[in-house]
Amino acid sequence: MNAKSSHPSHNLPSRRTLFTAWLVLMALTVGTMLAGHVTSTRSLGLLWTGGLLLISWAKARTILQVYLNLRAAPRGWQTGFNITLIMLLLLLLGLYAINALGLIPR
Q1: What is the residue extent of each domain of the chain?
Q2: How large is the C-alpha radius of gyration of the chain?
Q3: Residue that wins the pLDDT comparison between 8 and 47
Q4: Whole-model pTM?
């Protein structure tokens, strides 16, 4: 076995990967601003909120996979984080939907 391949930094993302991830995050941030109607005071509605949460999922996955280097972790950890993230975003969407449908008395 090559001594270099067992070095802890072997699985770290390259500068190019980090820069590409940063560009993707910047593009997703612009998408978040557009989907979130940042210049409007009106409610987003369920469809736009779902889109916003989908963009948030993509941003969180990029940060987890690249910057926190989850891509080098065992598949079980990756699956666990992904399921947790999806469940959290679905919970947020569900709470928004309950409120938007007026199911919570004010």
Answers
A1: 14-100
A2: 18
A3: 47
A4: 0.79
DSSP H or E stretch at residue 53? helix 46-62
Question: H-helix or E-strand containing 9?
Answer: none
For residues 38 and 27, the answer to whether their CB atoms sit within 8 Å is no
The CA-to-CA distance between both ends of the chain, in Å, stands at 66
Nearest by Cα to 35 from 50, 23, 13: 50
5 residue type, one letter:
S
C-alpha dihedral sign at 46, 50, 51, 52:
positive
Taking the C-alpha atoms of residue 65 and residue 21, their distance in angstroms, rounded to an integer, is 10
Mean pLDDT of the chain: 88
Q: Kindly state the average pLDDT of the residues 84-99.
A: 94
